Amino acid sequence: MTREARLFVVSGPSGVGKGTLVALLRERLTRLGLTVSATTREPRPGEVDGVSYHFLDDAEFERRVGEGEFLEWAWVHGHRYGTLRSEVERVLAEGRSVVLEIDVQGALSVRASHPEAVLVFIEPPSPEELERRLRGRGTEDEASIERRLANARREMSYADRYDVRIVNDDLDRAVDDLAHVIDSYETRSSL
Ligand code: 5GP
User: Fold this and answer.
1) pTM metric for this prediction
2) Residue at 191 is within a domain
3) How many domains are there within the chain?
4) Which domain holds residue 11?
């Protein structure tokens, strides 16, 4: 069976649990490559520069945008986040698939520049559950929670532009579904 390294984008509204889902996916599919995004937001306690994100100041982020270093970038919750081309190219050159866990605007701009990318939308079981999860995280003040909730409502409206949709109601099942999607697209050319 031939396996082809591919670009996957896992996205969905803030608070849907896509970070946890992708972390479990990586434990399951250790063949996946790892890319580190850049952001202008402050590191949270425990986050390490170069591992969690490349933490850049506004000027440095701007410079790299100008140099065309980003595959995509977007404003998310008042800060800039972006995927460095160099990170994606390095991993694909190793023959490993890339799974980008990024926001909805970023996902749609990857779709525009890389039509072959596979876009996976993670959906909450319900809007109420999404709000509960967003508040339960406990790391944000009320103003940023409200901003994330408003973004989440808008982001849900893009779900039908994705190749695949997975409901994150049961984490184990959602990881299974995601692993299956990756496996089937990687081996699709040999079918
Ligand atoms: P957080 O600040 O909680 O780490 O991430 C906030 C949001 O930024 C998440 O929805 C995450 O998917 C998104 N994000 C993380 N890295 C990137 C990136 O490289 N590009 C884009 N467009 N969004 C990202």
Assistant:
1) 0.88
2) no
3) 1
4) 7-186
